[in-house]
Design goal:
The protein is of the alpha+beta class. Helices cover 21% and strands 34% of the residues. It folds into two domains: 32-79 and 138-239; 253-396, no CATH class.
Length: 398
């Protein structure tokens, strides 16, 4: 009897677990969307373009095979007031003066036309409102590698899914869904090796965590989850790498080296506190099992202070000095990533000939750059962070 009860309890538990698993899978599919817009493999996707009136974000695949990656280009479009033209030169001859002592306008036959009214007041050219300042379009472009967001982007846009289908979109619905509204509308273009798919994205859908969308070619409408567009809407801020080095339990050891030939290796250790039995992860010597606080502090600064700021694809590293290189390895010795820190010091510009010598000479410009497996190209880091890491190199590599 007791055995039957035990088996009965186990059966109920299995049924409950199976139900929870089944409903959880349904919830995941519902969140991701089940309506198929197109199907392709991530490796076939070559470009993603997100366009709004104020910004275009273009992601292009570079490299081939497993070594390929996404490269981003953000182009921002802004309007600004044109500067007013300079005042006329004081040396320009004055206009002829009429009988009333008011400057007169020239006429076609070379004479002088009256420029005053009967009251002797100059006639206004236009009695209307003053002209609005003239505007000019200004564009700025920034390039960057796409970081951790690349995996999700490739998965979402190679096999596009929607929360629900709306059917053919009428002209009235185009306005209702915000496809004609410049303030909210955007165009998404996904380019594959053999085809191009385009969607116009409208406003937030009523009663859903998604946006209205219409397929440009077919005219079919959809509601697509907000999460699909979040990274693209954020542009460089959301897409660039957040870190320059690998992190997490996959990193088992790090090799450090300087151009002067100093080098060492530190290992990831899991140390157990004898009193509390708590496991603490730190860095040290695997052979002896001894922790190295100095090395742990240095590696922490590298991770937190050497974050990419602005990417400089055209920077000539020959103009900078290499300070230290770190190679991150897994438990089998495989390379997970590499980072090199550089420093560049630019002397201040010489004062113009004949200019007075300043009481306090200007300081040279000090810049720090990193190149890593994740950044791919040189990127600036905060000067204070770069300086802190530089000052600690000698302590970790004496």
């Amino acid at each position: 009897m007791k055995g039957a009860i035990v088996h009965g309890v186990l059966l109920v538990a299995m049924l409950l677990f199976g139900y929870q698993t089944w409903t959880r899978e349904k919830d995941v599919k519902k969140t991701a969307g089940e309506v198929v817009l197109w199907n392709a493999r991530p490796g076939e996707l070559t470009s993603i373009v997100w366009e709004t009136p104020k910004r275009t974000t273009k992601l292009e695949r570079k490299g081939e095979g497993a070594a390929s990656y996404l490269w981003g280009v953000d182009t921002k479009i802004t309007k600004k007031t044109k500067p007013k033209p300079a005042a006329p030169d004081a040396g320009v001859p004055a206009a002829p003066v009429g009988d009333a002592g008011v400057p007169a306008a020239p006429v076609a036959d070379g004479g002088v036309a009256a420029a005053a009214t009967d009251a002797g007041v100059p006639a206004a050219a236009d009695a209307g409102a003053p002209a609005e300042p003239e505007q000019e379009i200004v564009t700025s472009t920034r390039e960057y590698p796409v970081g951790e967001a690349a995996t999700k982007l490739l998965a979402d846009f190679s096999a596009m899914r929607a929360l629900r289908a709306l059917g053919p979109v009428s002209d009235d619905q185009r306005a209702e869904y915000g496809f004609e509204d410049e303030k909210v509308a955007a165009t998404l273009t996904v380019i594959f090796a053999g085809q191009t798919r385009s969607l116009v994205i409208g406003k937030k859908a009523t009663g859903a965590t998604g946006k209205y969308a219409v397929d440009v070619e077919s005219g079919q409408g959809y509601v697509i989850a907000d999460s699909v567009f979040t990274a693209l809407e954020g542009g460089e801020t959301s897409l660039k790498p957040k870190l320059a080095v690998p992190t997490g339990d996959a990193v088992a050891a790090i090799e450090l080296a300087t151009p002067a030939g100093k080098s060492r290796r530190v290992d990831r250790l899991s140390l157990k506190d004898e009193k509390t039995s708590k496991i603490t992860k730190t860095w040290g010597d695997k052979a002896t099992g001894a922790a190295d606080t100095t090395a742990a502090n240095f590696l922490s600064k590298v991770e937190t202070e050497l974050k990419p700021n602005k990417f400089e694809p055209t920077l000539d590293l020959a103009t900078a000095t290499e300070l230290v290189t770190l190679v991150y390895r897994d438990a089998k010795g495989g390379e997970l990533g590499k980072l090199t820190l550089y420093k560049r010091v630019t002397p201040p510009a010489a004062p113009p000939e004949g200019a007075p010598v300043p009481a306090t000479p200007p300081e040279p410009l000090v810049e720090y750059f990193i190149v890593s497996t994740l950044t791919r190209v040189p990127a600036t880091v905060q000067t204070t962070g770069g300086d802190q890491v530089e000052q600690n190199i000698a302590t970790v590599l004496p």
